[in-house]
């Protein structure tokens, strides 16, 4: 498996997720905290469903 989603509670008591590559590097994160754990899980599911074929837009 190339990457793993990690769901965790931050110091402020909010739920967040991060996507960690098998080499240990964080390659994406929720960017925001969620009050409800289920909302954070929904954020993970949204990325899984909406980004597998995302286009690459070179803005350089």
Describe the structure.
This protein has a three-stranded antiparallel sheet with strand order 1-2-3, with helices on one face. It has one helix spanning 37-50, and strands spanning 3-9, 15-21, 26-29. The protein is globular, with a radius of gyration of 13 Å. The model has no long low-confidence stretch (mean pLDDT 94). The chain is an alpha+beta fold and 60 residues long. It has one domain: Double Stranded RNA Binding Domain (2-Layer Sandwich). A hairpin with a 5-residue loop joins strand 1 and strand 2 (15-21). Helix content is 23%, strand content 30%.
Features:
single chain, 60 residues, alpha+beta, Double Stranded RNA Binding Domain, three-stranded antiparallel beta sheet, 1 helix
Based on secondary structure, the structural category is alpha+beta
How would a textbook summarize the main sheet?
3 strands, antiparallel
Form type: globular
Helix content: 10-25%
Question: How do the strands of the widest beta sheet line up side by side?
Answer: 1-2-3
Q: Domain count, please report it.
A: 1
Number of H/I helices: 1
Which spans of ≥5 residues are poorly predicted at pLDDT below 50?
Answer: none
CATH superfamily: YegP-like
Mean pLDDT: 94
Radius of gyration over C-alpha positions, nearest whole angstrom: 13 Å
The fraction of residues assigned to DSSP E strands is 25-35%
CATH-defined topology:
Double Stranded RNA Binding Domain
In N-to-C order, the SSE pattern is EEEH
The oligomeric state is single chain
Q: What's the CATH class label?
A: Alpha Beta
